[in-house]
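Bumping with the actual sequence this time:
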Amino acid sequence: MFKGTPELIAQRREEIISACEKLYQTMSFKEITLKEIGNETSFSRPAIYNYFHTREEIFLALYELEYKRWNEDLEKILEEETPLTRVQVAEKIARSLEKREQLLKLLSMNNYDMEANSRPELLITFKAAYGRSMTNIRSILTRFCPELSKEEQEIFIYVFYPFMFGIYPYTEVTEKQETAMRDAQVDFTRHSIYEITYNCLIRLLDQ
């Protein structure tokens, strides 16, 4: 078992997560190995096992970081001093997700494998960040859309959160996919993250 100061452990974990994030900009999940991640760090690849046991644990940590970043944006919405209309609420939540393309990309992956191959303690901290986002969304609805009942808030949450899993594939389409859809005569119109998210939110708020 590796022993180091809490500061060193946090620094090394952050460096590993940053290395994974850098690779994820140009490579797919399947292409990124522990060896590839190790090559991007300042210490030996075997040392990674002192902090993460699997590649999935590293991606889960990146996933958690993305939820934390989104939570910061959601909490800024809650700091608004003036009331927001339903349209403005939809706009602000959509803008917050527009900045979180990496979160949406991670959501579109196979989360079952990622969670199944991670230790419980890491899964718990991830779920805490995920749960905090739900709390923030409920708080936004309670503050700015007080006419919505608790039941309507729950409908909003359990429609919108599953919806988020499909945003990235509908907004990031490769040339190969576009060609295939064109050849298959599939009617497809490219939409931005903001457009597709806003259209969903405004309809949920008008329920």
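The tokens above came from a reply further down the thread. The chain has a mean pLDDT of 94.
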